[in-house]
Each structure stands twice: as structure tokens, then as C-alpha cells.
Amino acid sequence: MTVTVSGASSAPVDGRERLLAEMRRMKDASGLSYGRLAGRTHYSRSSWERFLNGKQLPTRVAVEQLAAAVGEDPSPLLALWDALDTTSRELAETPRDALAAPADSQETGAPRTTGGSRGRVGLLLRRLLPLGYVASGALLGALGAVLLMDDGHSATATPPALPSREVAARATATAPRPGCRGDSCLEAEPQARNCQWDAVTARQTWLRGLQIQLRYSPRCKAVWGRVENGTVGDAVSITDRWGRTEDATIRVGTDTYTRMLSTADAPASTITICGKIPSQHERECTPTDQPPAP
Hints:
Blueprint: H1 15-30, H2 34-40, H3 45-52, H4 60-70, H5 75-82, H6 86-93, H7 116-150, H8 164-173, E1 200-207, E2 210-217, E3 222-228, E4 235-239, E5 245-249, E6 256-257, E7 261-262, E8 272-277, E9 282-286
Antiparallel strand pairs: 1-2, 2-3, 3-6, 3-7, 4-5, 4-8, 8-9
């Protein structure tokens, strides 16, 4: 693929240098500082300094957001990014703290959908395996209690149950490695990236019988919205401080969830989550005193 870069010299350069040169050209032409660029995108000032100084290859989302921030067509930049070799693109989308993962660890660039029955079965097994560990541990504990009682010892000799946090920590320790972290989780599905294993409900509210939850994964540094006990047509949306939004509508059943937003540069407390019941023309958001910035 041949991509023409505005203002580029005739000297041969590799794809990465052409991409960075065009991104720097756009930023310089706009007159935006790193701080103002950060204010118009989901990425921090330090992230943009790393991207544009060539210290870190930007993600595809970052490339698209730069073009949007300066008011230019993102197609030429995205074409340059897509033309990079597979390894470079995978490294750009991989969280930096996962680059040293062993070869047999979970793939960090897991696709949003799994193609073929073999892929679906493999994904299902990976999700069920940690639950098997927890279930087998519980079974062994129950058998131990029975043996102690049969041996003439009182039931009080049974080791006390682990606190719920410790149980959760042990389950998390056996869970698959998360497939993203922070900004690399943007627009990704939480289950496709193994972010659901340590997820907690950071905030919740109710609208009639609709339960609206903001789910947070500490390992993935990302959040997503979820609604339960709803009906077809009910919806949920989440919005970060930069105005980036993810939403989902119940198509079948009684629940649904959104794709993820990053909390790498802003805590989960800055995320606004809303539940909607269009049939009743009703909407409930939390926090109500912190509307998302435009």
C-alpha cells in the first residue's frame, strides 16, 4: 500500500517514521500544545509526548483521536497505522507491563469475537478453569470438615472460612491474564479481555426495577456499564471526563453491558453512568452532581 504523506521528503523512511511525521505535522499545524491536546482527547499530556517523540507507538484509538482533535480526516493516519507490520501493531495495543509475559500466558491482543467452534470452546474453557479451581478447593474443605467430625473432633476444629476478600484474591490469582490495561482497553469488551475476573461494582443506582451498575477492574484499570432486571429496549451508557461514551441496549433477555473506558488517567469516580427506560421516557444517572465535561 502506498500512502502519500503531506510535506514528506523524498528520502526513504519506514512506516512508523511516516506515521509519526504526519502526526507531528497535524499537531504543529493546529498550534495545540501537549496539554491542550490532552484536554481534547482521552490521553494524558505525558502519553502524547511519548507518542509524538517516538518513545512509544500510539494505539489506533490515539491516532484516530489526534485527527479528531485537530479537525482533520483520520483516514490517512489510520492507513499508515494499518500498514505497519503485525508485530508493531500488536505491541502498540499491548499494555507495557504485559510485554514480559511468558509465552504460555494468555494472549494480550485477544479479539473481540472468537471465530469458529474451536476458538469458542477454548475461550469457554479458559473462563471456566479458574472456577474449577475455586470449586475444587471448596469441596476439599467440606471433605476435611466431615473427616474431622467423624474422627471424634468437634465441628469447631474445622478451619474458619476465608474472608470474602481473600477468596476473591485467590480466585483472581488463578484467573487468565488480562488482555489489556488502561488505554489499551478502550472500546474493548470486558469478557473478551478477561477483565471480569476481578471486577467489582464501583457504583450502582436503580430506575424503577432496573439495576444500573458501574463495573471496575483494578487489573485492567478500566470500567464498563451494566444493567440487570430490565426489558428489551432498556439501555445503559458510561461517559468519562473527556466526553467519551460507550453505550449498550438490551436486545434479548434482561441484561446487557457496554464496552470499556479507561481509568488510567482518571479514577472510576469521574465516570458518569446512566440507565434509560425509553418506554417510560425515564433516565437515571450517577453521580448526578458531576455531569460529564463536553
